């Protein structure tokens, strides 16, 4: 782990010098991209080994989950040690709540998000759900939004430190205590990036048409019992009532669409379960407290 950590540090140093293509890591792993923070892999392994006893196992090698948790911890350590965390963003489905469900008042995530907000950390919930109305986002996030509204721990200025970005960065809402939905829309001209302002309506429609064609092709090729759902700023595929997609079918559909759209757009996401999200938030809190003790 220490050797890999040093390779990453060398790569970051080369990035900063404008010679990333010459790093040892780039030579060993040509597709490697940009690192925005160092990774404390050695310390992260020690931390996770004390919990999962990876080095004590005789027959079971390090698993995918072991490696993922080590990398998560290394990233958290880097963020905590590098200075105060200013912003944390979360996906909705399969991260804050189970797929198709909502963030209910009893969710263990809520108390932890309130703790982050009480420290002045801004919260963003970034979801693919493309709703035009605040009411529908409230229905998915009501447990958290109502808890923020009722919180005695958060002063009014900190309650405003949460936004919801929906529809793959197409709709932005911010907290409002005076709204019955706890959210109000932010007009696009207030937050669109300069590059986004250059997108024409014709280009957006063309992109959605191409994506819809790719999904339709998958339905026909694999004889899927599915329906296409087209929205103002999105297009998707859902199984017909009573049907389910196999994982392999979904992966084939995603890879096909990604290949077709590669010249226009590319996104990457990492998904954690609600339980893993709670564990990660607890880990951040624990490491943050350790760093506070060391500063004193």
Walkthrough of the structure:
- With 296 residues, the protein is of the alpha/beta class.
- It is 50% helix and 12% strand.
- The chain is built from twelve helices and seven strands.
- It has helices at residues 2-17, 24-28, 41-52, 64-81, 108-118, 134-150, 156-159, 188-191, 194-197, 201-221, 247-261, 274-295, and strands at 87-90, 122-126, 162-166, 171-175, 183-186, 226-231, 234-239.
- Strands 1-2-3-4-5 form a five-stranded mixed beta sheet.
- β1, α5 and β2 form a beta-alpha-beta unit.
- α3 packs across α4.
- The longest helix has 22 residues, at 274-295.
- It is globular and about 50 Å long.
- The two termini are 29 Å apart.
- Mean pLDDT is 89; it is low at 266-272.
Give structural attributes.
296 residues; alpha/beta; 5-stranded mixed beta sheet; two-stranded antiparallel ribbon; 12 helices; 7 strands; 12% strand; globular
**SSE series:** HHHHEHEHHEEEHHHEEHH
How far apart the termini lie comes to 29 Å
> What is the count of helical runs?
12
Proportion of β residues?
Answer: 5-15%
Classification by helices and strands: alpha/beta
Strand order within the widest beta sheet: 1-2-3-4-5
Oligomer: single chain
Number of strands: 7
Roughly how much helix do the residues carry, as a percent range?
40-55%
Radius of gyration: 22 Å
